[in-house]
Write a structure and sequence with these properties.
The chain is an alpha/beta fold. It has helices spanning 86-92, 123-129, 144-154, 161-174, 178-181, 194-206, 224-237, 250-256, 274-279, 284-290, and strands at residues 7-9, 31-33, 38-39, 46-57, 60-71, 75-79, 103-111, 114-115, 130-133, 212-216, 242-246, 259-264, 267-273. The protein binds adenosine-5'-triphosphate. One of its GO terms (cellular component) is membrane.
Length: 295
């Protein structure tokens, strides 16, 4: 476990190091010990080993000494109130935060034995291993085929057209989209429904054979039927990939994930088997959140 540098009393948007009173509808004496996460944050089969991770936006510390393992082929859900740092932490896993100039990441972040933040790291290669699907479907304004073929082309994964065709077909099949689009691969992707576009983005992400797929609220722009399709897909994909999903829906976390991580004010408060988090959480802040007392 990590060193515990300070003790911070819960609640929102206060200066980092201050101990501040909680709001009335929150547990009165709840404290979060920095760097201390209850439950089972570590694994014997880690794909990611993340230790004492801190993320700063300028002077403001958005992630506070988080340590966590993410296991191979697990689906882990990140949940917590708005602004608690779920997306910020997720984006560290493939250095998506690099594009934000004021953002600085500290600590040790390893993918297998590779230091993700090594200065010499090829970020394009890293993102091929750790793909990402965003909140809003963001297909390129190109054909369905070219969206999926884009990554394999830039990474030189296919020498012949027939190889590329095969990658495109397999990726669309894995994303549960092949039957719907096989007769219109040349049609523009932006003409598809929102749910189809999101499955296309998943096909695009898996076309470069990533080991990990990060999903940042992938269903928040979708209707319940499209959401159900993506959730089925997550279950199928978890046989081949490690999946990290940020979600505001506790029902979704309960349906799709093996472990759930509860974030609060930049701390990782609790990580446990999903069933345990939702039936008998160990930390009172987790309990307050899942019972709807705040969030
Ligand atoms: N680009 C940025 N510049 C400055 N501060 C940022 C930036 N992105 C996020 N933050 C801040 O970092 C903290 C964590 O934000 P983040 O988006 O990671 O939280 P979240 O839990 O994913 O929230 P939500 O559920 O609302 O998407 C917040 O205080 C937020 O205001």
């Amino acid at each position: 476990m990590n060193t515990m540098n300070s003790t911070i009393t819960s609640e929102a948007s206060q200066p980092d190091e201050a101990a501040v009173p909680v709001q009335e509808d929150k547990p009165a004496e709840t404290v979060i010990e920095e760097g201390k996460t209850v439950g089972k944050p570590f694994s014997d089969n880690a794909k990611f080993k993340l230790r004492d991770v801190e993320v700063f936006y300028g002077e403001s510390r958005a992630i506070k000494k988080i340590s966590l393992d993410i296991a191979r082929n697990e689906v882990i859900a990140f949940i917590g109130p708005s602004g608690c740092g779920k997306s910020t932490f997720l984006r560290c896993l493939n250095r998506m935060n690099d594009s934000i100039e004021i953002c600085k990441v500290k600590g040790s972040l390893q993918l297998d034995d590779l230091d993700i933040y090594d200065n010499k790291r090829d970020v394009v290669e890293l993102r091929a291993r750790v793909g990402m699907v965003f909140q809003k479907p963001n297909p390129f304004p190109k054909s369905i085929y070219d969206n999926v073929a884009y990554g394999p082309r830039i990474h030189g994964l296919a020498n012949r057209k027939s190889d590329l065709d095969e990658i495109v077909e397999n990726s669309l099949r894995k994303a549960g989209l092949w039957e719907e689009v096989k007769d219109r691969l040349d049609a523009t992707a932006t003409g598809m429904s929102g749910g189809q576009q999101q499955r296309l983005c998943i096909a695009r992400a898996i076309a470069v054979s990533p080991e990990v797929v990060l999903m940042d609220e992938p269903c928040s722009a979708l209707d319940p039927i499209a959401t159900a399709k993506i959730e089925e897909l997550i279950a199928e994909l978890s046989e081949s990939y490690t999946i990290v999903i940020v979600t505001h829906s506790m029902q979704q976390a309960a349906r799709v994930s093996h472990r759930t991580a509860y974030f609060h004010l930049g701390h990782l408060v609790e990580v446990n088997e999903t069933n345990k988090v939702f039936t008998s959480p160990e930390h009172e802040l987790t309990e307050s959140y899942i019972t709807g007392r705040f969030g």
